[in-house]
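Quick bug: NB-ARC domain-containing protein output formatted oddly.
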Amino acid sequence: MNCFVPSRPPSRVGKFESDLSLQLPAVIETRPVIQEDFGRFSEALLVLPTLHLVMTTDQEAVEPQTPPSRPPLEVLYPESKDRSTETYIDIIAVHGLGSSVDWSWTWRDKSGQSPPVHWLKDLLPAIVPKARIIVYNYDSKWHSNAPKVRLQLCAEDLVQSVFAFCGGRVHRPVIFIGHSLGGLVIQHGLVHAHNTAAYSELSRRTVGFLALGSPFLGSKMHTFANKAAQLMSLSGSHRGIIDELELNNPTLVSKIDEFCQLPDMPGVTRCFFELYETDYGRRFRVPGLVSGMVVSEDSACIPGCERFPLQTDHLKLNKYSGPNDRSFLSVSEQIRKLYANSKAVLQQRNTLKSLWSLKSEGAGITQVPQEGPHWMVPFGRNEGFVGRKAVIEQLLEMASPDANTDNCQRTAIEGLGGVGKTHIALETAFQIRDRYPDCSIFWVPAVDVAGFENAYRDIGRRLGIEGIDEGRPDITELVRDELSREGANMKWLLIIDNADDTELLFGNTKHIPLSEYLPFNKSGSILFTTRNHEAAVKLGIPEKSIIKTTGLSSPEALEMLQMSLDEDQIRDTEGTTNLLNFLTNLPLAIKQASAFMATTRITTARYLDMCQQSDKSTIKMLSKDFKDLGRYKGTKNPIAATWLISFDIITRDHPLASQYLQFLSFLGEKDIPAALLPPAEDEIDAEEAIGILKAYAFISQRQERQSFDIHRLVRLAMRNWIEERGGREACVTGVLKRLDVAFPFPNADNRDIWLVCLPHVQAALEFREFVTDIPLKRGILFNLAVAQSDSGKFREAEQSYQEVFRLEEIFLGKDHPGSTHTVHNHATVLGYLGRYEEAEERHRKAIAILIKEHGKEHHDTLLAMNNLAVDLFNRGCYKESEELNRELIELGERVLGKEDSLTLDSNNGLGNALALQGKAEEAEVIFRQTLKLREKVLGKEHSATLTSRNNLASVLKMQKKYKEAEQLQRQTVKLKEKTLGREHPDTIGSVSVLAHVLGAQDKFKEAEQMHRRVVELMDKVMGPEHPLTIIRRNDLKKLLYDKAAAEVATD
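Here's what came back:
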């Protein structure tokens, strides 16, 4: 669809033109469900009490348990002990809960037509012929006659058994394979081995760890098993291990942290997870009674380790029918790679060990310089930084990229706002730069999405990432992927400042979690500053890597105060000590107080007296807002008192500085352009006012451009100060009036300007309820909606347009011609969201108003009619869409010309409508003509031209002209990724077309990859309930069915 361009302001939300392929309905064919084996119910951690009686009476379902007489470790291959000397690596498999070595790894054909397949000895030797394949015997029963064991005991026994089996020393490289609970046993065992000197060799010799559906964070279905164990206590059940498998059990979370810190493990760990729910009821002839994901992807995958999906449920993750079994191919390929790389891994570890030994002995080893280190820190060095030596040394050891060469280190500085977290991170950055001159350092604020994206965009520019300035919506992914790229030959430190908001970091309904865009590279390190311990934990940072900061020590606080004051001001030792105690030695409070005293020349005793005489009720309110959960009830936050005093003095002595501070308090916190400030009568006055605010440390200026940051608590305190004095309405109105001038109507030419302004417009509009100027609010909200649409944030844009409607009805009246632009743009956004009926209704409303005002041949009327034709097409009204497009072509050629973009849009719409009525040949002719004209008029890379290429490929596919269609569509996808980005709806649609073309040629593997990519991106961008998302998901199911049918036919 297109949008209007009215006189003031032009209303546009970007190109919206349906691709033909997006509307092809998917037909889901059904097949008979094959009866599966019963298998061992308890093998998947869970049991249903009502089904247990069925289990114990069906001998086929009862798997054998490990007799006590069997040795802990048994060799499956080679069968002859003599041949063991021909092998050089050990593969040790550990089964899951309630299972055994004989049952866990064996596939059984329920029909009895095929023999059982124990893949560890029947299939795996062909992949790793020089491996000795071993199984670990341990009693994992829990439901009856269960041993009183714990997970840690099983892990320690595994380690001891391995050493006993190897004669007291591990000489060979080892690969572990664990199914379900077995993976936890291995994980706990490796941590235990690493931390125990007598067994540490096992950790160093482990060159691979494959976890098949292991619940590293527990299981949601733990509750059922726990209840079952309680009901079955009379038969000897034991809940010890079951209790440990509770979802997000702190012990399991802590163990993941410990495992991730092992120097050698994350890089050789492969995590496999199930894609299908496990239906336990089906196994006992009551399908659907109990089903679900036994182990979710999040629980099955350790952060920083490679992950792989398996097309099966939990009970079949470890049972494979033959060498061509899909799951076996995936698992065995990873085993083969670990097996092939084992010698190189051990050699590399030995080399690193030798290098570190030489380095520690002072051998003079120097680092190899890296090319092009980047310094992207927006602040200068704080020359007044004092103390914190122990914290800085700790950070230098933990946060430098060399701290952990086997992982991407994550470290956090945690503490209350005002303790100096940002300045500690800043000093750390400068010292790392000095100590490691080859290390690039990047600084990113995490206060809001827009600020985060802008910082990533700047990094992308510095790194020279292609397409970073082309308005692509996936810039954060591009930067993440570049920093994550192995072989980039660049060490880096990424500082994420103010990582406090858990919704922002980990997601809500409005945006994708920022944590999704954090890079991972073993040559990199990430340092967070946060006041929120929950955020640090959710970021996967172990407790030992979270550095908690408090106020300065008394000597450090005094040193900081003395740096800014004369001796006469601090001569009163008792008054100075009392003042520092009153300020709780917080660096921000001390800096603000000293700046005020330096300006006014008052003593510390006088400043303390002024603090104690401030408005107690205001202090009480601000203390509530700033209260820390770790403080005793009733304790006030004294930093608020310091700010209130400063606000009053600045207002009295520096009115323009006070006006600026009030203005800034209603904007975003980071990267506020100086151009947004209200213009002063004299430039010198403006510079002086800004200097006063910097002197009080209320704002800090960025180095690379004319912009400022304001501390979030200063911002909040100032707004409270304004409210107490009854000036909120006037202040917010003034801010919006200034933004109405400074925030331009968004278009491609001024994108850099409105992107920088966007977070501040959004922040100011949060207070629009206090503004009575309706036209003012309407104008800014309209521009905001356009900006949100241009950024691909259609849900937010739809909400903004809804509010614009409400405001227009108030001051214009219902169905006023002046609302036509909003009606049209809103309808366009609804089309993007898949709400086609609403979009059609809106467009018909706009057309009626436009015909009444301008007539049928007016450009705006034709534009609205064109978009209505798209709506009809999207709804499946192909004949009606065809008729309307033919009418539009006749009107367009006569009024606008044959080569006008709107006329070409109507030609494209006609081709779409014809194609889906079975008139593919006629549609092809139209698409070729339209493509030729669009290339001539708009250029080959214009979005409309790419749409024509896309639709031509679709209609070629309809006519089974697959080769031409595939060649054309591959080029189209590449161009759309370049110009629009991977996540743009139009790009996703083009990938879908290519997937259909590939599937039609039986290129199932690549087609499946494409379809899965489409479904994943549609879920992420458009939402799982969007009509097109549902269609795309059905497309994938249809392809999988076709693939299976083809395989059956081949067999």
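Actually, after a second look the formatting is fine. The radius of gyration is 33 Å. Closing.
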